[in-house]
Amino acid sequence: MDAHFLFLLLIGFLAGLMDAAVGGGGLLQIPALFNTFPAAAPASVLGVNKFASVCGTFTAGVQFVRKIRVPWQMLLPAALLAYIFSYIGAGLTSHIPVHYMKPAMLVVMAVMFVYTFFKKSLGQVVRSSSLTRKEYALGLFFGALIGFYDGIFGPGTGSLLAFVFVRFFSFDFITATASSKVINITTNLAALSFFIPNGHMVWAWALPLAMANLCGSIFGTHLAIKGGTRFLRYGFMMLLLLLIGKFGWDVMRVYLTVV
């Protein structure tokens, strides 16, 4: 095992920790995979990333739901729709110009950051009332919508889910994070149901990276639960800044190339 692969495993651990605590582990893991295996097919790299991610996300999700009460009656059908629409989105990636999504997501992330920054009470109070019928319907709608986004594009899915649960369902950040893991698991499984049967998987890379991701997620979940809603609010805003920076740089690079 060479130094480059050992460094990738370290990044996998940190990505699992980051993803479990606040989301966005792919920001670390995907570039590290492409740098470690520059000659590999992009689909294989993405398949390895999804396999490692789903192992970490599943581990984090199990830890969260054991300690945090989540609305299963809304989450399970929403997760099913997310799975279906994520698979549909993955199948449409070659037909839809996804490069238009980066400028759109840059705007969405900026709005989310500004809203969270100025609304200090957002996600700080634990909800005690039951979900309404309208909220159940909203859960199904957002499950399908964000599932489709994750299948066709992907970056920032966890942040979108957490924001939706906090803003539209008045969840605190810990409940929102726990709930987002349930949806994220199914969207990752949908992507794997495309990558694995089509041969886009290198198990010699995927299995060690998945173990590193899993170990990181254990620490990340503990950090999130111990830190509480205030920690998650600040972590969420830092993640949004990272996403804004990434999307902004990608959009600027395309613009400079065209000019």
What does this protein structure show overall?
Keywords: Cell membrane, Membrane, Transmembrane, Transmembrane helix, Transport. The chain is mostly helical. It has one domain. 80% of the residues lie in helices and 0% in strands. It is built from nine helices and no strands. Helix 1 packs across helix 3 and helix 1 (3-21) crosses helix 9. The protein is globular and about 50 Å long. The mean pLDDT is 87.
End-to-end CA span: 43 Å
User: Shape from CA axes?
Assistant: globular
Q: What value does the Rg take, in angstroms?
A: 18 Å
- Uncertain runs are none
Largest sheet: number of strands, sense, barrel closure:
none
Structural category: mainly alpha
Mean pLDDT: 87
H-E string? HHHHHHHHH
* Tally of contiguous helical segments: 9
> Roughly how much helix do the residues carry, as a percent range?
over 70%
The total of beta strands comes to: 0
How would the blueprint of this fold be written?
Blueprint: H1 3-21, H2 26-36, H3 42-67, H4 72-91, H5 101-118, H6 133-152, H7 157-169, H8 173-195, H9 203-258
